[in-house]
Design brief:
Number of strands: 6
Order of helices and strands: EHEHEHEHEHEHHHHHH
Number of helices: 11
Structural class: alpha/beta
CATH architecture of the largest domain: 3-Layer(aba) Sandwich
Helix content: 40-55%
Largest sheet: 6 strands, parallel
CATH superfamily of the largest domain: Response regulator
Strand order of the largest sheet: 2-1-3-4-5-6
Strand content: 5-15%
Length: 222
């Protein structure tokens, strides 16, 4: 198997949902669900047995909650990166997940293309924060995104080399839209959308669109 393939442990107690998520990766190139778990005990054991690149972890499990599973995997399998899947925005859960080393916190209504992108980005070492939980991170002083934000005017002054269109594209990147979705939203071609994203990444001096989104959030654009 190619070294470019991302090996995934999928942890989800509802079989129908688990099968659906697995089918997403089965249909995409470069991803391999090497193991599945329907509870926390299985998840911890299989993380050690299979040493996956990524654990896609449902936070609501029947035996051990996902937060404890995250903590155990972070301690026992430090080379594995965990992505939390949650159906709700719970302040205390979010706080504990980031304290225990989660790489991404994803609300389950995310679209397929974005989920694939997040897994690929996290595998490269990036973090990803679902836009829906950003207000919680700001308001509760979780030390992930600073409470004190710059104004939009200050952000623009700091990054005056961004065009108006690039600001519009950046806002959609922060919202988690793919290049195709951005193209549809702004009535431009996907090629043009991709070019704007590449320009933004270069101008913000970051490595990828995830880092661009995080930088925009930290500096108060959204």
């Amino acid at each position: 198997m190619s070294n470019d393939v991302i090996n995934i442990l999928l942890v989800e107690d509802h079989k129908l949902i688990r099968v659906g998520i697995k089918s997403i990766f089965d249909d995409a190139d470069g991803y391999n669900v090497i193991a599945e778990a329907e509870n926390g005990i299985q998840a911890i054991s299989k993380a050690q047995t299979h040493t996956p690149d990524i654990v896609l972890l449902d936070i609501g499990l029947p035996d051990i909650d996902g937060i404890r599973v995250l903590k155990e995997i972070s301690e026992k399998s430090p080379n594995t990166k965990t992505i939390i899947l949650s159906s709700h925005n719970n302040e205390e859960e979010i706080k504990k997940c980031f304290e225990y080393g989660v790489y991404a916190y994803v609300i389950k209504d995310i679209n397929i293309e974005t989920l694939l992108y997040i897994v690929k980005s996290v595998n490269k070492g990036a973090m990803w924060i679902d836009p829906k939980i950003v207000p919680t991170l700001r308001n509760k002083s979780f030390s992930i995104i600073p409470q004190k934000q710059t104004t939009r005017a200050m952000f623009r002054n700091s990054h005056s080399n961004l065009t108006q269109r690039e600001y519009e594209v950046l806002k959609l990147v922060v919202e988690g839209l793919s290049n195709n979705d951005i193209a549809k939203e702004l009535c431009i071609s996907e090629h043009t959308a991709k070019a704007h994203v590449c320009n933004i990444i270069q101008k913000l001096v970051v490595d990828d669109r995830t880092q661009a989104a995080v930088k925009a959030i930290k500096e108060g654009l959204v």
